[in-house]
Structure formats: structure tokens, C-alpha cells
Design goal:
Blueprint: E1 14-17, H1 27-54, H2 61-90, E2 94-96, H3 97-130, H4 135-138, H5 141-167, E3 176-177, H6 184-188, H7 196-228, H8 234-267, H9 274-284, H10 287-299, H11 301-314
Parallel strand pairs: 1-3
Antiparallel strand pairs: 1-2
Helix pairs in contact: 1-2, 1-10, 2-3, 2-10, 3-5, 3-7, 3-8, 5-7, 8-9, 8-10
């Protein structure tokens, strides 16, 4: 029977995303917090971008990088949440192979680009604290624009091979994806070919792109802390650390569930229950995008002041 399925053309087959395996009965309840978080993420990040673009006092490197992060958050949650909610609400589980691969590409592309933006933000804090007098001459609008373009170009070239890696495989008629959205290993596991190349490339990308980003972020903060603890004034020390606090929260929110999901997919098949892995993967695409504008709003006095000013104007 299996041989009759050999070399099925993936383009001819519809695939089925089953949501969260083992928790199908709770889909309608799980959809409520996910939908709420998605709405808050989109509204919060659009508001943040609007505030930064329209308020001249926020046209500083830190806030321009923050607007890039907000845009990436909107795209990441929008690439996943609508289909996820369609599965939970309407049992709209079917998806064509082309649509599945497109979703896979955009999720990985946005993730790698967002990782680069977080690295750029840590570099921004490093320059601001370690070289305050040269801050505006190092991070000019031209340099910020080039960093943004470099993040997008790097991400595109890293993630393009994923498309070829899943299209080169032969598929055997298996068309059930035990997930709420399409990602590289979820598609590759449907193939009847050896997927070692897919696993190796996925690991290499994780270690050489996002892994190296994390290493450079840690190096930036090590140098920042070294500089901060040489400041004699406790008040100045606290102020410098406070400006980094929101960024550290965002970094932890972004990388922790992402790497949990990444390693669970490759190595945790038997030790981590499938529904836990998929639930974390679902929350990962809505929780950080929802919390990022809230964290920066609470921790950044300039944004707080502008929000209060806008509320009073409306009043």
C-alpha cells in the first residue's frame, strides 16, 4: 500500500493542520486568549509605530529600531494567528502545499529578521552607554537604514533554502500536520525521504544566525554592565540599567519559547508531550508581540508621557 503513495506530488495534495494535538476539545477555549492577545499585539504595535513616526522627539535610533521590532511583531502574529483561529473556530484545517510552504517561509524569515533587530537594539544600547558622546555620529539615520536592510537581506538568504529543501523531498501521501501552523520540520516529517539535510540545515541556521545573535547580544550586555559599574553615581547607574531592562525582558520573551519549540521539534519528541510543545509554539507567536509594546510603554518615560498627552488631548 505504501508503495502506491511513493513520489506523490505535494502540489496535488491538500494538507491538514489539526491545531493542538490532544487538546482538540479545548480549541474554542484556547482561542479566546489567543484572539485577545493577537488583537492587543496588532493594535499595540500599530499604535507604537504611529507614535514613533509622528512624534519628532522619538526620531532617535532606539525608537527607530523599536518601530522595526513592532512591524516584525505585527507580521509574525499575522502570519500565524488568523489561520490558527480559523482552525479553532471553524475547523478550517485544510491548506494547500504552496500556502503551507509560504507560511513556513514567512514565519522563519520574520523570526530571523527579528533576531537581527534585537541584536541591533543591543548594539544601540552599547553605543549609548559606552560611547555616549559619539552616539549620534555612529548611529546616523543612514546607518540605521542600512542595518534594517541588512537584517531583511540576511534573513531572506538564510530562509530561502528552506523552500528548496521541502520541495526536493518525495512525499508518501501523509498529509496530517500535528500543528496549528506550517513550519519547516513539520512539513519535512511528512516526507518518505531521508530528511537529515533538513535537520542539519535547520540546526546550522539556528546556531549560526540566531545563535550568533545571542552571543553578540550577551557580549554587548557584558560590556554595558562593565561600563555601568564603573559609574560612581548610583542614580546614574540605575538610570543606565533601567534603559536596558525593557530590552532584556523582550530578548528573554523572544528567544526562550522559540528555542524551546525548536529543540523540542528535533530532540524532545519522546520526552516533551506534543500538546505542550504545540501550545508553547502557539503562544510564542502572540505573547511576545503583545507584551513588547506594553513593556516598552511601561519602561520608557518618553512613550508614557506621549500616551498621557494624547489621552488628555482626546479628553
Amino acid at each position: 500500500m505504501a508503495s502506491s503513495y511513493n513520489h506523490t506530488s505535494p502540489q496535488d495534495v491538500w494538507y491538514f493542520l489539526i491545531g493542538i494535538p490532544g487538546l482538540e476539545g479545548l480549541h474554542s477555549w484556547i482561542s479566546i486568549p489567543i484572539c485577545s492577545m493577537y488583537i492587543v499585539a496588532v493594535v499595540g504595535n500599530i499604535f507604537l509605530i504611529f507614535l514613533i513616526m509622528t512624534e519628532h522627539s522619538l526620531h532617535e535610533p532606539m525608537y527607530l529600531f523599536l518601530s522595526m521590532l513592532a512591524l516584525a511583531d505585527i507580521l509574525l502574529s499575522t502570519a500565524t494567528a488568523p489561520k490558527m483561529l480559523a482552525i479553532f473556530w471553524f475547523h478550517s484545517t485544510s491548506i494547500s502545499f504552496g500556502s503551507c510552504v509560504s507560511q513556513m517561509f514567512f514565519i522563519h524569515f520574520i523570526f530571523v529578521a527579528e533576531s537581527a533587530i534585537l541584536l541591533a537594539m543591543s548594539f544601540d544600547r552599547y553605543v549609548a552607554i559606552c560611547y555616549p558622546l559619539r552616539y549620534t555620529t555612529i548611529l546616523t539615520p543612514s546607518v540605521i537604514g542600512k542595518i534594517g536592510i541588512a537584517a531583511v537581506v540576511r534573513s531572506f538568504f538564510i530562509c530561502c533554502p528552506f523552500i528548496f529543501l521541502v520541495y526536493r523531498l518525495s512525499y508518501c501521501g501523509r498529509n496530517i500536520i500535528p500543528h496549528s501552523y506550517c513550519e519547516h520540520m513539520g512539513i519535512a516529517r511528512l516526507a518518505c525521504d531521508n530528511i537529515s539535510v533538513n535537520i542539519i540545515y535547520g540546526l546550522t541556521v539556528a546556531l549560526l544566525s540566531t545563535g550568533m545573535d545571542i552571543v553578540f547580544i550577551i557580549m554587548s550586555y557584558t560590556m554595558i554592565l562593565r561600563t555601568v559599574f564603573q559609574i560612581p553615581s548610583w542614580a546614574a547607574r540605575f538610570k543606565a540599567l533601567n534603559t536596558c531592562g525593557s530590552h532584556i525582558c523582550v530578548i528573554l520573551l523572544f528567544y526562550t519559547p522559540a528555542f524551546f519549540s525548536f529543540f523540542a521539534h528535533r530532540f524532545g519528541g519522546k520526552t516533551i508531550p506534543r500538546h505542550i510543545h504545540i501550545l508553547v509554539a502557539n503562544l510564542y507567536v502572540v505573547v511576545p508581540p503583545m507584551l513588547n509594546p506594553i513593556i516598552y510603554g511601561v519602561k520608557t518615560k518618553q512613550i508614557q508621557d506621549l500616551v498621557i498627552k494624547l489621552i488628555h488631548m482626546d479628553g
